Structures are given as C-alpha cells and as structure tokens.
Amino acid sequence: MKTYDVYGVGAALVDIEYKVDENFLQENQVDKGLMTLVDEDRQYQLIDNLGSYSKLVKRSCGGSACNTVVAISGFGATAFYAGKVASDDAGAFFIKDLNAAGVDFREAGHASGTTGKCLVMITEDAERTMNTYLGVNVDLSSSDVDTQLLANSKWLYIEGYLVTDSQRTKVAVEAMSFAKQHDVKTSLSLSDPFVVQIFSQQLKSVIGDTVDLLFCNEEEAINFTDSSTIEQAAEALKNYAKSFVITRGAAGSMVYDGEHTTCTSGVKAKAINTNGAGDMFAGAFLYAISAGHDYVLAAQFANAAAALVVSHFGPRIETSEYAKLKQQFSI
Predict the structure, then answer these.
(1) DSSP 8-class letter at 275
(2) Domain count across the chain
(3) Which helix (H) or strand (E) holds 327?
C-alpha cells in the first residue's frame, strides 16, 4: 500500500501577492506576465516600492509544485512535499501553512540563510507577473528528497522551475530516475514559457526517455516542440510523454491519454488573478486520475477547478469549494 498519492518536488517559496497597475510594472522595469529570477536586493526594492503604491493581498506557502500538492490534499488525497526553507520567520510560516493544508514536509529541509519568496504582482487584466528570489532553494540537493517516501508514493510530480540551474536540475533528474526504477509514476510540468525558452535541454534531461504525464500550456507546448500549431505540438509531445495535458486558458484543455486526444471545453470564470491556475489544474487532474477516473473526466474536473481559482486572490480555493467540485463531478 502506497503511503502518498503524490510526492512533489519544487522550490519552496512564500508567495506574496499585490494588486498593481500597468504603470507600476513599467516604472519599475518589470517584464509583465513572466517569472523573472531576481536577487534579494531587487525583490526588497520592489516590495518597498509596492508598500507606498499598492496593498498586500495575500501571503501563502507557495512555489508551483507546492501549490499543486496543496490542491491535491484539499481534494482529499495524501501528499508530501520536498523543498528547502531556512530557519527564519518566512520558513516557519511556510511549514505551518503547508501543514495546515494537510501536506507533509520533512523538517530536515531547514537551512541557514533566507527562505525564498515569490513576489506576485496582479494587474487589472488578471495577469500575474512574478519576481522570484530563490533563497536557500539554490542549495536544494538530492539529500532533500526522501527516497524511501518517494518509493512509497503513487506519483512523482516535479515543477519545471527546478531546471533553472545545474544543481537543481540534477536533483530533478535523479528523483525522476529513482521513481522510474521503483514503479512510481512520473509527472512533470513545463511551468513557464521563460523556462521552456531558456532551459529546454535541461527539461529534456529530466524527462529522459519519457515521463508518464506531462503538463504544459499552449505556448509552452509549441515552444518546447518547436512547432507552429497546437496540433503539431501535441503530436510531437508524444515523443516525450506517454500522456499529456495542454491547458488553453478559457478555451479549456487538450488531453492525450496514451491512445486518444480529446479537447475539453473551458469553464466560464470572472478572472481576477491567474496565479496558480496551472498548479490547481495539475493538482485536480492528478487527484482525479489517482482516484481511478479517466483522463477526459479528470480534465473537465481540472478545468472547473482552475476556473474557480482564478476568481480568487491567491493560488487556493476554500475548503467548501473542494467538496462542491467533487460533488459536481461525482468524484
């Protein structure tokens, strides 16, 4: 009997969300709609500027894979998260918030230094722009991945953001290889167009021969496969993954279950914040298939979950909303 449904690996970050307008991004030379890695001084400078300009909306434990395993736990599956935080106030907040969401975390991840933070700036069009200071995440090593617990998990889920440096790429490669050797199903998110554009070869090294399940959005799929259309990209992705899902925002998703490709319709939503939409989609999808449902139902369920999360600030939905979604889809 497996201990965990999903074992997630990623950069452990405290997400700090602010509402901003377009002028703030322009005046502070922030590239809109992307995740940009910054140093601590630059992040503090932006936060100081925001303090006199905007208001803090929400703070939560975060990072892409973290948001996904929190969603998985919220739906009722068991999840473990491997990441690294420092012995500081932000690290203590991260662990407390993660544990409150029902996700297990190994305390050995503690380290001296500074816990990473992701500054999420939300504009009126609901677009999210992220400036990330990784902090002690740069020191993430294979020793931070508990292989005994990983071997006792149904799924491994890795965020693509890990491949932005060689050491963390090595962690992802080794975790993926270990999972394949121990009959743990493997899944990977391409995470961000920026990651695909700059670190495509590193992503391919993590994938190895293939992964069981790949998550990406339309732009990432086209860029990763050097395709012109979503149809070409979907065909090319079969070289990298036994199954995959391509999210398409309001247009829904395209899902390949290993035999058939199906397009599922989007769910209407009043979007105020796209932060965490892809993470929530992955969490809902993994929950549904780990509970024995087929890929099409899982995608429809995940579309609805993603539509719900974009109507909130923060990458989470309320406890009651998890239950309502499961009831709606008889899951």
Answers:
(1) T
(2) 1
(3) helix 319-328
Q: What is the pLDDT of residues 261-303, one digit of tens each?
A: 999 998 887 765 666 789 999 999 999 999 999 999 999 999 9
Residue whose C-alpha is closest to residue 189's, from 326, 65, 81: 65
CA 105 – CA 109 distance, rounded (Å): 8
AA letter at 23: N
What would the DSSP string read from start to end of 9-49? E---EEEEEEE--HHHHHHTT--TTSEEE--HHHHHHHHHH
Task: List the beta bridge partners of residue 153.
Answer: 4
Residue 254 C-alpha from the chain's centroid? 18
Structural domain harbouring 287: 4-328
CATH, residue 34? 3.40.1190.20
Sheet of 4-9, strand order: 104-105, 79-82, 4-9, 153-159, 185-189, 213-217, 244-247, 253-256, 261-264
Cβ contact 37:127 at 8 Å: no
Query: Letter for the amino acid at 255?
Result: V
**Averaged pLDDT of the chain:** 92
Model confidence pLDDT, tens digit, residues 160-219: 999 999 999 999 999 999 999 999 999 999 999 989 999 999 999 999 999 999 999 999
